[in-house]
Amino acid sequence: MTTRRARPAPRPPAGTPAPAELARQARAVLADAVRIARWAADGAGPGAVPLADRALERAAAAMELSPAQVRAGWDRARLAGLIELHGDTARPGWRLRAWNRDDSAVLRGWVALFDAWSLVHSSPEGIEATAVAEAVEAVPQVLSLLQLSAGPVSVPALLDLLAQRVAELHEERCEVPYGSQERPAPATETSADLNALLLDWALEGLAAVGALTLGSGHATLTPLGNWAVWVKLEQICVAAQSPAGNIEQSAADMLLGCARLTPGPARAEYRAWLAARPVGSAVAELLAVARGEDALLRGLAFEALRVVGAPAEPVVRSVVTEAPLRTYALLWLAEYEGADPDDAQDVLSREEATWLWVDTAAAVADHGESGLLVRHLDSAVQGTVPALLDEVRAVGHPRTVQVLVALAAAHPDPALAKAVRRAAFQVHTGGA
Question: Which long-range contacts (CB under 8 A, 24 or more apart) does 59-63 make?
Fold first, then answer.
């Protein structure tokens, strides 16, 4: 028998602030967004997207901000997961409730905003969408150079890298006239001007979300931006809590502690936790966690309820009418009534299956690796990405924009990532 040692978590670059300090900086970046989210969550009734004019005026007056500041803060709050829209009602996201006590929730919220920088900062008018998409695809290389340089980088150096990456994208897509035997013409002054305009837009957008600072002719990653780029380069997952001592933990902490376990050990932990509590109160606590906005905890709560079995059946049946819990409850009941777990999905309508796909993708985006999110595409019932995007846009899940932005950031296929990013923009702006 051999002892298998876990790979130690990579250490961030020297000089990276502690998570508590990074979270403090993230809270400062999102301070206006948090104020607006709390105003909306307190029953101020913001209305539909975009923020209704009357609500905009009320928010501006209540918080002594300009309408433009309120609108910008509203968009940031939605993209960071601080508020979620259910019809015409704004509800606090799970990150907002955890904002003052959970540094990891704060950092995840800021990273969600960082991933959506191109939605926060409007692209220049009169520029073709294809050119904008190419700039967005080239930005990770620009950020990598900034991160590796560990200091200011001149704008001309960044522009050279952006232009090189855009040219590579053209070459990868074979964008030369069909049948032409001539070599592509060198970049023109017009394309150079376009690249310069798009670089300025990208740098301003990244500065707007707190990822970098702009000086006279140079750009520098902030500590938050440096940490975020390093995290993405290293593909670090959010570490789950240790399962040790789960029997004494709350339901939420117990579920997080079991998140990294394989099914067998996880069920053993669930049984131990359940055995230490009256079954009624344990079921109620698990369902309370499932009603939260953390999709990972929602799925894990129903896994724990499967261990409960018959005593949970009446309560699970009673929550079928609750939209966030409906798909999970239907699957639980199908399996309880004898359906094979592989066939239980048949009880869901196509719309319900799509809703569950988005909810599961939200869990992966919040807690998993980017590769898992890409592979999650294969589990969609639609079979093709265009069909999936059409139905995802229509299903109305509150995390749709964040899921699509995360998927676009993670997917290695530039064309597919562009389509997903376009869908995220359409959902964000309320377009078709």
Answer: 63/35, 63/36, 63/39
The amino acid present at 47, given as its one-letter code, is G
The amino acid sitting at 24 is: R
A 10 A CB-CB count for 94 gives 19
The CA radius of gyration of the chain, in Å to the nearest whole number, is: 23
Alpha helical stretches, state H, 209-322: 223-234, 251-258, 263-275, 279-290, 295-308, 313-318
Q: What is the pLDDT of residue 54?
A: 64
Question: What sign does the dihedral 30-72-367-325 (CA atoms) show?
Answer: positive
Give the span between the Cα atoms of 94 and 292, in whole angstroms: 6
pLDDT averaged per 10 residues, the chain (length 432): 41 82 94 85 51 67 76 85 72 81 88 87 81 86 88 91 85 52 44 86 92 91 91 50 61 87 85 81 92 91 90 89 92 84 82 92 84 82 82 86 88 85 81 53
Residue 26: name the closest of 83, 108, 81 by CA: 108
Whole-number Å distance between alpha carbons of 22 and 208: 17
What pLDDT score does 238 carry?
Answer: 32
How far apart CA 351 and CA 403 sit, in angstroms, is 17
Predicted confidence at residue 51, as pLDDT, reads 58
Name the pTM for this structure: 0.64
Hey, what amino acid is at 26? A
d(CA 145, CA 125) in angstroms, rounded, equals 28
The residues, any chain, with a CB within 8 Å of residue 408's CB and separated by 6 or more, are: 417, 418, 420, 421, 424
Name the amino acid, one letter, at 207.
Answer: A
User: What CA–CA distances, in Å, run from 432 to 48, 71, 357, 382, 428?
Assistant: 15, 21, 21, 19, 10
Distance CA 185, CA 167 (A): 11
Nearest to 147, CA basis, from 211, 80, 215: 211
Pairwise CA distance, residues 143 & 220, whole Å? 10
Find all residues with CB under 8 Å of 106, minimum gap 6, and list them.
23, 26, 27, 30, 95, 98, 99
